[in-house]
Amino acid sequence: MVFARLLILFIFLNTSFSSTKAEPSEMYIQQNAMKVIGSQIPAPILSLLQPYKVIAVGEHHGTNEIPELVANMALALAKTDQVVLALEIEQANQKGLNKYMETGDESLLEYLSHFAREYQDGRSSIAMVELLKKVRLEKNISILAFDPDFSLDSQNRETKMAEKLLAEIQKKPNHRFLILSGNIHSSTKIGNFFDPNYRPMAFELFSMQNSPLEESELISIITRYDSATIWACINDNAEDCGEMKLKIEPSNYSTSVDFEKYFLKEPQMSEEGYNATFFIREVNPSKPYSN
């Protein structure tokens, strides 16, 4: 499982994000980009998200900005709905997370295996703890750890993620689910750059047999950047994890408007398998919480 994650990350870190991929026209972005000022989610974006039961946000792990964005999105959604905020944390950590949400005792997080592990790949950052702190007092938000504790391979991990989420969706049919995961998991399209038959978690959510979720009930949002430095790992040695600069080429997303942040509903599913984009001009690394 670690090898599969490292392979994906290695390819992303060593491949420029090219503007030659199919993307919306400059005119479309100029006419439809929904500007975001500061950290609050504007009402028009919330209105656009209202029809969706499941909102899957894909990120590069290890930034300050994306966990903050998702925390603010959860808080905004919680004004009208009960929200399950699903995080890419191993399920064995659920009881400890529940206890933290009840008590606010931050020392509980320090001993959770997710945050205390030696191998820090960006999912257990200071920013992720700040996310938990930010949403803890909102009674309409609960936290779900949906990453399996064990999987046979990367595809098995995707399927187990989806199975856990679908089980919770069935238990809580009146809740909205906001999922924060790596961008591979949040794609709604079968196949990707390393396996044409790969079934990402978000795709599995509506395609698995007996799934209670319709494809139209899920929106997948990819986070895009003009400049990005993240905290990540490039091999299986914990000491080699650290700050890494992503190679990103200019694209219509970065040049069509001068907004620092904006939300864009894609005119059609993107080539990578996403329905929408949240653009942030620059994202910066968040160090591991345990350091």
Architecture overview:
33% of the residues lie in helices and 21% in strands. With 291 residues, it is α/β, with parallel strands linked by helices. The chain has one domain: Rossmann fold. Strands 1, 2, 3, 4, 5, 6, 7, 8 and 9 form a 9-stranded mixed sheet that branches. Helix 4 packs parallel to helix 8 and helix 9 crosses helix 10.
SSE order, one letter for each helix or strand: HHEHEHEHHHHEHEHEEHEE
Integer average pLDDT: 92
Number of domains: 1
- Let me know the largest β-sheet: 9 strands, mixed
Question: What is the fold-level CATH name, i.e. the topology?
Answer: Rossmann fold
Could you list the spans in which at least 5 consecutive residues all have pLDDT below 50?
A: 1-8, 10-20
Q: Roughly how many Å is the radius of gyration? A: 18 Å
Shape-level CATH architecture: 3-Layer(aba) Sandwich
CATH class call:
Alpha Beta
Intertermini distance: 24 Å
How many helical elements? 11
Oligomer: single chain
- How would you describe the shape? globular
Summarize the structure.
33% of the residues lie in helices and 21% in strands.
Core attributes:
single chain, 291 residues, alpha/beta, Rossmann fold, 9-stranded mixed beta sheet, 11 helices
Question: What order do the helices and strands come in, and which of them pair?
Answer:
Elements: H1 2-13, H2 26-32, E1 34-35, H3 43-49, E2 54-59, H4 65-77, E3 83-90, H5 94-103, H6 107-110, H7 113-116, H8 126-135, E4 141-147, H9 154-171, E5 176-182, H10 201-207, E6 218-232, E7 242-245, H11 252-255, E8 261-265, E9 276-283
Helix pairs in contact: 4-8, 9-10
